[in-house]
């Protein structure tokens, strides 16, 4: 029996072809949690084996949440069933969901289809995060801090309680959210990466982002000055899932 299940989307984080679940698992293990990774594209059928009530973390990745791929369609159905079930359950019986980047977008799309939209200028690098409401997800985290961002989609969803927002391209969109009734939490930024891991990620995708967005991510990697460690957010999520520390 595992403490937490990590659903891994597509894409790699380095030239060793390690997936987006790797830093999540590594950080959770430092906090003493046992993990089970389910690579969604290859093993989405294993979602049905996850025990009721076990917390789930959905990783970042390189697939659009509105892509019409079999594994993604089935994953959305699975997440949708959990959310619908959570509506009817007391806090102590809910299955807690935490989405990171792609994972946050996936949760939002399941709750409100069409809530994720393309961002013309990607958010890449060290970005400031300002919390506008308290949440147990950010316990012992400063109200203003820096986090690693690597995404080109935005979330606008009225069904999610805003914890942090971003103002960009004349718009406001969600940077972190929760819906305690649904047992859902999410961040567009990546709390799981170390500085070295994030540098490697940026270097790995440099050719793709230069071709698609004319952005030199290797240059961004070389210019990083801060190495924020936000892994406590993962630990906070796990504490909520196991001691129901909601307020």
From TrEMBL:
SUPFAM superfamilies: Class I glutamine amidotransferase-like. Residues 20-200 form the Glutamine amidotransferase domain. Gene3D superfamilies: 3.40.50.880. One of its GO terms (cellular component) is cytosol. This is Glutamine amidotransferase domain-containing protein. InterPro entries: ChyE-like (IPR044992), Class_I_gatase-like (IPR029062), GATASE (IPR017926).
């Amino acid at each position: 029996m595992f403490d937490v299940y990590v659903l891994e989307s597509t894409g790699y984080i380095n030239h060793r072809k390690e997936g987006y679940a790797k830093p999540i698992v590594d950080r959770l293990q430092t906090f003493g949690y046992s993990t089970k990774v389910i690579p969604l594209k290859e093993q989405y059928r294993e979602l049905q084996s996850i025990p009721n009530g076990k917390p789930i973390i959905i990783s970042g990745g390189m697939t659009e949440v509105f892509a019409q791929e079999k594994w993604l369609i089935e994953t959305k159905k699975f997440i949708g069933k959990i959310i619908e079930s959570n509506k009817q359950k007391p806090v102590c019986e809910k299955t807690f969901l935490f989405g990171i980047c792609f994972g946050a977008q996936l949760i939002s799309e399941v709750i409100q289809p069409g809530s994720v939209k393309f961002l013309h200028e990607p958010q890449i690098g060290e970005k400031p995060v300002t919390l506008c409401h308290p949440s147990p997800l950010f316990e012992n985290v400063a109200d203003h801090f820096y986090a690693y961002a690597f995404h080109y989609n935005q979330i606008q969803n009225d069904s999610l309680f805003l914890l942090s927002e971003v103002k960009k391209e004349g718009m406001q969109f969600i940077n972190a959210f929760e819906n305690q009734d649904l047992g859902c939490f999410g961040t567009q930024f990546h709390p799981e990466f170390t500085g070295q891991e994030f540098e490697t990620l940026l270097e790995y995708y440099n050719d793709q982002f230069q071709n698609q967005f004319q952005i030199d991510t290797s240059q961004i990697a070389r210019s990083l000055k801060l190495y924020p460690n936000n892994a406590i957010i993962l630990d906070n999520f796990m504490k909520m899932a196991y001691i129901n520390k909601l307020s």
